[in-house]
Amino acid sequence: MGIKFIGQFLLEKNIIKPEQLIEAVEYQESKRLKFGDYALSKGYLTEKNIAKIQAEQRHTDMRFGELAVKLNILTPAQVDEILTLQKNDHILIGQALIEKGFIRPEVLERELALFKADQSKFVSEGIMVPSGAANPDIIKDMVDLTQKMLLRLAQMTIKLGNGYISNKEPEKNYLLVSVYLFGSLKYHYAVSASLEASRLVASKIIGEEVKKDNREAILDGEKEFCNITCGNIIAKMAQRGKAMDISPPMEINYSGGGYSLVKGGNAVYYPMASPEGNITLILVPG
Asked: Which domains are present in the chain?
């Protein structure tokens, strides 16, 4: 078994049905308002304020509340109040399944214990860089910013698998988009994503739901995500005193039984699991 979420775990054991998980997730989402929604309901922000902060977030790795304070739109006390409201209102998917009557509390307790035991080998403190990888601090920055942008731009919560080094090409996936970072350091930053993960990212980036058969729009959204993330990466590198630039994002096509990305070098792979689909971050030096 690989990295996964409790909902997927329960599905695979036939304890709940797919439609029950979907309904529980929708119920959970109805209870989980965004930071901006809370601030709007409290009268602390306007729609214009929210749009301004969200636009600024594309160019920084700061959280919504932190950025609002920096822009003098919210006070630290207001941010703390909203974060407390979010924490108090949030429910976990297991609680949502119980409240919807899809699982009994004692069954959930038993399965949670089994789930934690199964997933314990994938849990690590922070971002672990595999032994032998060059520029470990730079790799941590790239992985960290990718996670943050997935959460902030696509509202996608992910579980990060252990990074590993491989000279093999990525496995075939719905999309593989790459950006070349060059200057003080040289890396091919690539994101391999399933259809559902790509579609979610594209929908959030574009601002409206993208249909599964609209591959062009999905590709455009994925490219823009990589472009924004890599823009944040080079800004972070500048803070480290490393001048870098990026090339336009491009799709790497699967041809002749494989991709031509790693080309026999040593790439660092980071699998990322989410309820919406799986993503793999691939960092290729040179």
From this structure: 6-122 (no CATH), 136-285 (3.40.1550.10)
